[in-house]
Amino acid sequence: MIVVDAWRFLADNPGRVLGDVAGQLLLSVVSVAIAIAIAVPLGAAIGHTRRFALLAVNGANVLRALPTLAIIAIGIGLYGVGFVNIMVALVILALPLILTNTYVGVAEVEPGTVEAARGMGMTGWQILTQVELPHAIPLIMAGIRTGTVFVIATAYLAGTAGYPHTLGSVITNPTLPVSQLLAYTVLAVVLAFAVDGLLLIVQRAVTPAGMKIVPSTAA
Amino acid sequence: MNLPAQGPVIPDFGNTSGCKANETFCWDWFADHWDRFAAELVQHVWVSAIAIVIGLAIALPAALLAYRLPRFETPAVVFSTILYTVPVLGFFLLMIPVTGIGLLTIEIALVGYTLLLLFRNTVTGLRSVPPEVRAAALGMGLTPGQILVRITFPLALPAVMAGLRVVTVTTISLATLAAYIAPYGLGQSILFYIGNTFISGLISAGVLAILLALVADALIVGLTKLVTPWARARRGGA
Span B34-230: which CATH code? Predict the structure, then answer.
């Protein structure tokens, strides 16, 4: 029975399985964190000032179109195999989603709300941090959640990028038995759903009480 | 193309060429191997296009069904979300015992990834049509079938096309992984040259895959403008 074999593979190699899961999570967390560190300030600045909006939207669309394996392949040529290679590919995967959602979230705060804040004497920085960003949190979190699920579901390509300490150690190796493959594939799906659920809890925690009635949508 | 038995420094080109082993990209080598890349590029387009067309053929009727029968929506979303989250390579490899090594396996997996976005966007698009527009159409004497074909679906088209745009670039991206299963698409060259120190092969295949995705993206944007001319008129010709 293939399912029994898959389970036995997981149960017999707890150290290796946990190591691969931890590696996959670490790689994903680092990649998403870098994507957030670039995309949220950039998206917020563009949404607040309304400058370079067209450039940002088109740039995000171009990034979104880049095939991950192609980035890995070109990366091998330009900066070699390893952690950095797969990380760059994953940052490029997550960045456009977070950038677009942050920009749209900040730019689409009702003009009346922003005017009122300005009328109360708030500075531009105060408006951004105390009015626009709190309003944008549902959209920003939706972008981060989708981006994270994408990254976790793709991080196994680390096996192709020459960084073996992920679920890719099995998934990118077609010579292994199907049972091992099944085990790791199911593990990857479970991992993606678990992290998505975790981020949903984070999203509820960081959403200001006044915003909770507004349903969030991914762009 | 004859493969040398002991991989030389520069694959399939001999050492008498102008290319150097440590060059980032050698145009001579690329020109000499253009036939190979062109064939893989054409395959890549076909593999992706088949998956997208089948995906539309499944997702659009399913979305119409979910629009009419809302209780059908949740199971469809859960099913397509699970499909969407499975690592595509795992999906490919797990399908081999069932559907064998070949195009069928590749297409089943690729179609699986198109369903969620096409389905969800189409349902969202259909739901966003204002009820008063449908009421007006009904009042003008249109039958329910005519309302669907001439009013509801055209108004849902921008959302459908937005989904199709993402699905197209995603499918082209995932199709690079098809070469793990069977010799189809640009992934063949990526996997073939991945262990080689002469990197022009990797760069060529990678850049071609990227260009293909960008061109397809631009084509869908153009197609969207073509099939939704009113959207541009509403934006004041911008």
Answer: 1.10.3720.10
Of B8, B5, B118, give the one whose Cα is nearest residue B54. B118
Is residue B172 within 8 Å of B216, Cβ to Cβ? yes
Chain A residues in contact with B82 (beta carbon < 8 A): 189
**Domain CATH number, residue A34:** 1.10.3720.10
Q: Range of A158's domain?
A: 2-211
- A154 within a domain of the structure (yes/no): yes
Contacts of B190 in chain A (CB under 8 A): 69-70, 73
Residue by residue, pLDDT tens for chain A (219 residues) are 788 888 888 888 888 999 999 999 999 999 999 999 999 999 999 999 888 888 888 888 889 889 999 999 999 888 888 999 999 999 999 999 999 999 999 998 888 999 999 999 999 999 999 999 998 998 999 899 989 998 998 999 999 898 988 999 998 887 888 888 889 988 998 998 899 899 989 988 888 877 765 554 444
Residue A106 lies in a domain: yes
Q: Specify whether the CB–CB gap between A1 and A143 falls below 8 A.
A: no
Residue A38 counted as domain residue: yes
- Partner-chain residue, chosen from B82, B205, B213, that has the shortest CB–CB distance to A73: B205
A73 and B206 Cβ atoms separated by less than 8 Å: yes
3-state helix, strand, coil in chain A (%, to 5): 80, 0, 20
The answer, for A94 touching chain B at a CB cutoff of 8 Å, is: no
CA distance, residue B143 to nearest chain A CA (Å)? 33
Does A74 contact B177 at a Cβ distance shorter than 8 Å? no
The domain tally of chain A equals: 1
Q: Which of A1, A63, A4, A10 is nearest to A187 (CA)?
A: A10
Is residue A217 one of the residues assigned to a domain? no
* Closest partner CB to B90 (pick from A78, A181, A193): A181
Q: CB contact, 8 Å: A207 with chain B?
A: no
User: Are B190 and A70 inside 8 Å of each other by CB?
Assistant: yes
CA distance B219 to chain A (A): 13
Residues B135, A30 contacting (CB under 8 angstroms): no
Enter the DSSP assignment of A165.
S
